Amino acid sequence: MTMTTTRRGVLAAGLGAAALARPAFAQGWPTRPVSLIVPWAAGGGTDATGRIVATLLERELGRPVNVVNRTGGGGLVGHTEIANARADGYTLGVITTELSLYRTTGAAQLDARNFTPIALYNTDPQGIHVRADGARDLAQLVGQIRERPGALKASGANLGGASHLALVGLLSALGLPANAVPWVPTDGVAPSMQQLTAGAIQIVTTTMPEARVMAEAGQVRTLAIMNPTRDAAYPNVPTVREAVGADWALGGWRGIAGPRNLAPEVATRMRDAMRKVVADPEFVRLMGSRHFGIEYVDGPAFATWLEAAERRFGDAARAAGLAR
Amino acid sequence: MDQLLSAAAMLADPQLLLVIAVSCVFGLFVGAVPGLTATMATALLVPFTFFMDPLAAVAAIVACTAMAITAGDIPGCLIRVPGTPASAAYTDETYAMTRKGLAAQALGASLVSSVIGGLFGAVVLMVAAPALASVALGFSAFEYFWLALIGLSCAAFVSSADPLRGILSLLIGLFVATVGMDAVSGAQRFTFGSTALTGGLSFVPAMIGLFAVAEILRALLSGEARRPFAQPQKVQGVFHGVGGLMRRYWKNNLRGSVLGTTIGALPGAGGDIAAWMSYALARRCSKTPEKFGTGHPEGVIEAGAANNAGLSGAWIPALVFGIPGDAVTAIAVGVLIMQGLNPGPQLFTSQADTLYAIYMIFILANLLLLPLGWLAIRMARPILAVPRPQLMAAILLFCVVGAFAINNSLLDIGVMLGFGVLGLLMGRVGLPVAPVILGMVLGPLLEQNFLAAMVIADGRFMGFFERPVAAGLGVAAILVWLAPLALMLARRRGVVGAAAPG
Question: Would the CB atoms of B199 and A72 count as touching at under 8 Å?
Answer without folding.
Answer: yes
